[in-house]
Design goal:
This protein is of the alpha/beta class and 294 residues long. The chain contains 9 helices and 11 strands. The longest helix has 27 residues.
Length: 294
């Protein structure tokens, strides 16, 4: 089994198409197909289910994909470590992030990194925390800044970065708008806007309301911050959001909560048991990623 075969295999698995994979790799499709067939013969198993439109991984292919990505990542890390010793940091850095982090500016973080290491290709992916955590664990992403999950996640190392209180977001004409602060119990009859189930920020709200014995109704589910605030600002529901959202341009109004106040925490996620690439290590050395809470 050769490094090139694994690289070809991973690319076909990601593209789900031999022609697109060949174009991405800048190789002839016939050579790519021959390499995959050779790999399948060496392993004694089919790796792809082929049809006229695309290809899908077999069970054997899915098993190989996890290990192949780890192997490619380790080889890349080794190359980058040698380059770093020579003062030539290069390679690729894949960073995941939530849309809005409040305490941390991802553009500033990446700008500092790019200025210090212009030879490194930076890729940024936004998404929900569960999706980002899965990509870090699978080896598709070097590091992610996420909502801190309530429990440890197998295969990941999570470092707390910052926390902030949650506040109530409501429409400008809502009866609670002019209150100096409110109890969670006052939200018993409210209609909520929130992120989809499984998003950690939603879990924070679910746990806080459950602790106050409130069964809430989430009528509108979104996957981005601005849609949430737009719906709240239009008077279609209320939401519990991190305090940093109060600085956004929106028609929504924000009301502090009385104790016990739920907190939203962000954390840095990296794969456990795998040495970060030289580029990832350089990013992790940024002072902005030092734990701000214990």
């Amino acid at each position: 089994m050769e490094f090139r075969q694994l690289e070809y295999f991973v690319t076909v698995a990601e593209e789900r198409h031999f022609t697109r994979a060949a174009q991405r790799l800048h190789v002839a499709q016939s050579g790519l197909s021959a390499s995959i067939r050779t790999l399948e013969r060496e392993l004694g198993a089919e790796l792809f289910i082929r049809n006229t439109r695309n290809v899908e991984l077999t069970d054997a292919g899915r098993a190989l994909l996890v290990e192949a990505r780890h192997t490619l990542s380790d080889v890349a890390a080794a190359r980058e470590a040698v380059a770093a010793v020579r003062g030539l940091l290069s390679g690729r850095l894949v960073v995941g992030s939530l849309q809005c982090l409040g305490a941390l500016s991802v553009p500033d973080l990446l700008a500092r990194f790019h200025q210090a290491h212009p030879g490194v290709e930076i890729r940024l992916r936004q998404g929900g925390s569960p999706e980002l955590l899965a990509q870090v664990r699978a080896g598709d992403m070097d590091v992610a800044i996420v909502s801190e999950p309530p429990n440890d996640v197998p295969g990941l190392t999570l470092t707390p970065l910052a926390c902030e209180p949650m506040v109530l977001a409501c429409g400008p004409a809502h009866p609670l708008t002019d209150q100096p602060s409110i109890d969670l119990a006052e939200l018993k009859e409210e209609t909520f806007v929130d992120f989809h189930p499984g998003w950690i920020t939603r879990d924070v709200t679910d746990r806080a309301l459950a602790a106050s014995h409130i069964e809430r109704r989430v009528a509108l589910e979104v996957n981005d911050v601005h849609s949430l605030l737009n719906l709240v600002g239009a008077g279609l529901g209320v939401a519990l959001v991190p305090q940093s959202f109060t600085g956004k341009k929106t028609r929504a109004r924000f009301v502090p909560l009385r104790a016990p106040v739920p907190e939203w925490r962000i954390a840095l996620a990296v794969a456990a048991g795998r040495r970060p690439s030289a580029a990832a290590q350089a990013l992790l050395a940024d002072p902005a990623l030092r734990p701000a809470i214990r």
